[in-house]
Amino acid sequence: MTEAVAKRRFFLWRHLNKLRWVSLTTIFVMLIALPYIHVYQTFVAAHAYDFLAPSEKQLYDVVEFFTAPLSNDPAEDLDAIKGTIWAGTFFGFKLSDPLAALGQISASKGVYLPLLISALVPIGLTLVFGRFFCGWICPATLLYELNTNFAAILNRLGFPMRRRHFDRRLKYLVLAIGVVLAAMTGSALMAAVYPPAIIGREIYYAIALGGFGAGAVFFVFTLLFDLLVARRGFCRYICPGGALYSLLGRYRLVRIQRVVEDCNDCAKCNAVCEFGLDPLRDGFGQECNNCTACIAVCPTDALTFRMRLQDQPDQGPGHLGRHYRKCSATREAA
Amino acid sequence: MKRRNFLLALQAGAVALALPKFAHAARRRFSLRYLRPPGSLPEDEFLSACIRCGQCSEVCPNRCIEYFGFENGLASVDTPYIIPREKGCILCMKCGDVCPSGAIRPIERELEPILEGVKMGRAVVDETLCLSFQGKSCGVCYRACPLPDIAITVGMMEQPHVTDQCVGCGLCERSCIQMPQAIRVIPNHD
Amino acid sequence: MQPRTLLKQIAAGTGTVCAVIGALVWSPAWGHHVLGRPAYALNEDSNTPPALQLEVQIGDYFVTSMVFPAFPKSGKPTRVHLYARHLDDGTPYTGEVRFLVRDDKWFADEPELLGVQPPDDYVFRQGMVFSVDGNYIISAEFEANGEPYVIDFPLRVGRPAPIGPLGFALGTIIIVLVGVSVIQRRRLLTARIRHEHQDARS
Predict the structure, then answer these.
(1) Does A148 contact C43 at a Cβ distance shorter than 8 Å?
(2) Is B16 contained in some domain?
(3) Mind listing the pLDDT tens digit for each residue in A249-303?
(4) Is B22 a domain residue?
(5) Which residue among B4, B57, B76 places its CB closest to the CB of A210?
(6) Per-residue pLDDT tens digits for A26-38
(7) Could you tell me if C51 lies within 8 Å of chain B, comparing CB atoms?
(8) Å between B26 CA and nearest CA of chain C
């Protein structure tokens, strides 16, 4: 017992989950702010302040207030950050989702090197951190997790939500079908069913082009699917991007692992896991997105980060749990 | 509201065609007249290269680039287009710089590369509508052209004549004071 | 003064004037349209209000129809222009065009006749004033070679609702999701854990 207390895990890991929420919120706010900045830039470029409608003048003033300290020439300087999570430009450096590169390669049956290069940074990070994109960056994750909370509240209020389970390998099939269809139609179709791409695009459409498109309707359906059919069902079973990231992150270096000596079998980790994994029995696998929700909820700090290429096999019941004590008692008696 | 409204209008036209009552009148297929951004690949290659990231519109200082819904078929959902009568391209060439997919190739913003690489379409004057050809000297399209005397020349009564150098930016169509416009850009991508 | 020097002076003067004009004409600042200068078409109050346009290929004709202004208001004069051009030989249609208007709803009343217009320089122009804001459909009907042609043109009069039904639905969803999560954040974790355990048991 004393030994376990002495080996307390690095204290900051518990708070990573908060940092994750900050990251998700920041990205979502940026996705809303960028279209407004773009609209402001077009007003600046047109030298048309006097022709603007009152509401547009208001927008101009507000954005100018926030961006004036950052730029001398808004029409040019504010081009530094453009795009969405799907593909963006960051101070001249281009970043794209690996799924975008894969989609283009399958649709055009050729390789456009700059696009592939722009996907290298996310690919490299995924090789090290696994499917972290799904938990830390994807703007849809923010809404999906809030949606999970909503389902829990509805359940508490007496409206039980169905929670069906499907085969998690379904999403790899979706990815494969997407690649084949893209090759057959010559068009990157997966962009139309990939929530992070949809969200960035639809927010832009709504703010700068005056109305949501079909993608918004699709996204609402995924929310309803998650709420009424399966918890986080889209990410767990359908998302082609999640499938690609899972495959890339199969041999990730940074993993969450259970310290069996500290575990008391409370199973809170399994309850909070959005992807329905099984940390209690060391079942992380390639699906884990290192979101750290299980670390944050663990009452005995029995979950921590480890650098290794594979999960440990099932370590049996936690040493602080009732089951293990019963077993050891019988063992001693024998 | 503006763009969506406009496309609704186009769709409604298509619906009118599809009604069985007028089926015998609809012998030819309804098609949209739109331009791809400057420097775009030919249509088929464009569709397979574009990853639908939406950055081309986000850098466009003239906000002339919009995105398709289902109006133009499933393959071109979320791909960029320009309707020149609504807003023409000002040839700033930022969209080619920002495009990560190579669907819009980067072109330097100089006269020679633009004449060489931009082939959005070509303007065509409808002489039955053009005011200058009706004896009312106008010349607005010539003044709107970013490449005057290269892409468009004017003759007597400022009658416009489009040359082969026209890149199809659509600023002339945007500025035409006749309603409907007497100069139209015929897209190059078909 | 000798005629030769006079000639020289005239030539020099003309040359200078030409050079100045030439310099003005060729310097970029004198260009008709500076590359990269955006067109002003920002909203209905800007100096060049856009027109709403419909282009459609129907039967033998390519029909262009336009409404001016693009953002019509009730009580203000509005015009519809129509121009039809034969697809094969490019000759404009020169018969008469009937313009009708009806409400844009599922079970609309009988359309109201706006007028029958002869061509004016090949363009058919119909003026009108809407008394009530709303959604309308303008139909233009004409007959060519014994075939009827009908072109429908939806038109919004007055300002549309700032948020459409889809925007409203999405806004509500996001507000509910965020609101619930923020207000109930303490109870949520226990609720989720209990929920999951119930699930595992059942």
Answers:
(1) no
(2) no
(3) 999 999 999 999 989 988 889 989 999 899 999 989 899 999 999 999 999 889 9
(4) no
(5) B4
(6) 999 999 999 999 9
(7) yes
(8) 5
Are C157 and C74 in contact, with CB atoms under 8 Å apart?
yes
Interface check for C86 against chain B (CB to CB < 8 A): the answer is no
Q: The domain containing residue B169 runs over which residues?
A: 32-187
Cβ of residue A75 closer than 8 Å to a chain C Cβ = no
Cα separation, A65 vs A224, in Å, equals 39
Query: How many degrees, rounded to 5, is the angle at CA A123 between CA A121 and CA A127?
Result: 115
Distance CA A237, CA A24 (A): 22
Instruction: Please state the domain count of chain B.
Output: 1
By CA distance, what is B49's nearest residue in A? A104
The CATH class of the C52-157 domain is mainly beta
From chain A, pick out residues whose CB is under 8 angstroms from the CB of C176: 150
**pLDDT at C172 exceeding the cut of 90:** no
Q: Which CATH class is domain A253-333?
A: alpha beta
A83, containing H or E segment: strand A81-83
Chains touching C (3+ CB pairs < 8 Å):
A, B
Assign residue B158 a region (left: φ > 0; alpha: ψ between -120 and 50; beta: otherwise): left
Which residues belong to CATH 3.30.70 in chain A?
Answer: 253-333
Closest by CA position to B91, among listed B72, B111, B67: B111
Q: Which residue of A has its CA nearest to C44?
A: A53
Domain residues of chain C, as ranges? Answer: 1-37, 52-157, 165-201
Most B-contacting residue of C37, C57, C123, C150 (CB-CB within 10 A), to test interface? C57
